[in-house]
Specification:
Blueprint: H1 10-27, E1 35-38, E2 41-48, H2 60-80, H3 84-107, E3 110-116, E4 124-126, H4 128-145
Antiparallel strand pairs: 1-2, 2-3, 3-4
Amino acid sequence: MKLLVASYITPPLLALDLAAKLWARQALEMNAGPTPLLPGLSLRLVENPGISFGIMGGSPLAVTLLTGAIIAMLLVWFIRSHVVPEQFALGFILAGAMANLIDRMVHGSVTDFLVWGPVQAPLFTNNLADIWITIGVILLFGGLLLGGRTQQTGDRST
């Protein structure tokens, strides 16, 4: 049985996001004004019932089922992959997607708390899971575009 190199990255990323969301729910007041942290980054607790930018916010069951189906497809891709950079990228995407799904199932929405942009005119609010997904997508498509599918893990039977 082949070793899935990236399987070691998914659990810690998932745990880090869930811990950060738990901290945010305990330390920040719901829908209070942004608390500046660094230039261009503030903290503000909000609940997102939808997916990106609140899309499908009125359909929690549909969002949960869609997210679960996407995670299942990504898991199959991850398990079948023999390419280390691809596994690594999918590990990031899976960590973020699973963390947001768990949060949605526990709280009925996704906990967002990182506000990007000026305090007076923030651009968007997200969480660590969203960052993991973004990193994974960049690694996945960046690697594919740069020919990253050539590195194999273990032996492949033909």
